[in-house]
Write the structure tokens for this entry.
Amino acid sequence: MFIDTLIEKIQEKNNPSIIGLDPKLEYVPEHIKETEFKEYGVSLKAAAEAILKFNRSIIDATYDIVPAVKLQLAYYEMYGLEGLRVFNATAKYAREKGLLVIADGKRNDIGSTAEAYSAAYLGRTPLDGEISEEAFKIDALTVNPYLGEDGIKPFLNDCRKHGKGIFVLVKTSNRSSGQIQDILTSTGKSMYEIVAELVTDWGKNLKGKYGYSSVGAVVGATYPNQAKILRRILKDTYLLVPGYGVQGGTARDVAHSFNCDGLGAIVNASRSIMCAYQSDMWKTTYDEAHFADASRAEAIRMRDDINSAIGKG
Amino acid sequence: MFIDTLIEKIQEKNNPSIIGLDPKLEYVPEHIKETEFKEYGVSLKAAAEAILKFNRSIIDATYDIVPAVKLQLAYYEMYGLEGLRVFNATAKYAREKGLLVIADGKRNDIGSTAEAYSAAYLGRTPLDGEISEEAFKIDALTVNPYLGEDGIKPFLNDCRKHGKGIFVLVKTSNRSSGQIQDILTSTGKSMYEIVAELVTDWGKNLKGKYGYSSVGAVVGATYPNQAKILRRILKDTYLLVPGYGVQGGTARDVAHSFNCDGLGAIVNASRSIMCAYQSDMWKTTYDEAHFADASRAEAIRMRDDINSAIGKG
């Protein structure tokens, strides 16, 4: 079951933070890009190959300290078919290294179509008679709730059947998230509170042995006050918390997303880990050739920063 | 500009209906599947090849009567990398036949990531210096508004720069769409009305020579009363109307989505066109070998049905 495995990996590594592999080509060190441009010309293929090398190096440097990686699909779709090939290869590599893989795709559609998305990422694609195949091999997917329950149910079915997980968008980390998510409804509740109540309902039959559900919620680190409210509504829900680091969320901010048991949340950082070698904090210690060591150093710093804020340091 | 081209194609073909190419393998006639399974074994590759042949036949049989096709990305992602290759090949084939291609991906994310989605589907992916490439070549994309304006802006920029379009989800055709979209807010407006107002704002600088904006809205055929309200709010917005046919929307239902000038909406049908050869209406006239002729007959029937309901018959 996804949520149990996640919790066990968090405990084994004493780390509730995960690494976002959202690799824009501009994050990739020059020497890697140059090699691939020489080999394949300046092309989507070369870009994708460079990104794969970059991803593998970061995974090699961090797999022993983090429980999971989050791959943002947009950054792979951006490089077309070659990008999606590298999404697949990165996911495979990460899983071989014992990491859970969360695909951040924010997929959503009406029931019959949500079935297709769910087959693609969590279930299996039917081919002929009893024969089916896995299209993309990952462990969990982020989904958007705007279409309501029948757009979510197919994912719940596959979570149950295949031991996978989902994280439903509740309160996102971006500046304009309030434009829809914070709207006050006629019942006196905000939209994000209503969505949170739906999420607890959707997750109630998918609880694992630690009491948490495989149906999680996305709650941005940049809104600590809303996180406090949501932590109360979403008692048995694991929160996926983006927005730590470059987006402005601090360890103190994300601490509100955890329960007293030190569980209940995973915190994602993407740019601050991937581009650690360019950061003021690490660039004097690590040159570009040692970018992966800088990522490791930043991943350890982040782990300790968050553990200390939640009293696990 | 996307919206002007769309309107001209609608007028040229006297047809505001479009075909959804959402090809589950089970829709594909047996003889096509068998050939591909023989060639490639029972595999995602064979499934994708069968789907491509199926799509091409339907395009060949209908390109002279419809203005556009809508490709539901979920049904391609379901077949993995092979499926996405066929998404690309289908889009290319349709555009060569003079059709506009709308990708129904309902993409959404925070600003920086929405930029990546927009580059993937509407803009160009930067590679090195001034060199960039198109990852997927299509004309418009559906997007989800749950993250608010900063998740939409990157798409608006690429619509402006590259003459593309988007359709923002407002009121979807599925049964549980009301769970979030119909919620009454403290201002007395429903959520879908608030989203509709945002859509008119987002589209105001992207109007073409016919007064309509390249920022459209998705409004399901299955909710004619909401469509009436939305038609009034979304005066200069083109509505993409799913839900006609198998989902239960009739020509009278979709008529509410049009303006008095007979413009303002495109109506999509997927299963009723793709699976026309299996339908009670056409299966006695066309056997499985002539599935594409059945699709053409149903596309003509749909065109005339809608034109007659909007006084253009």
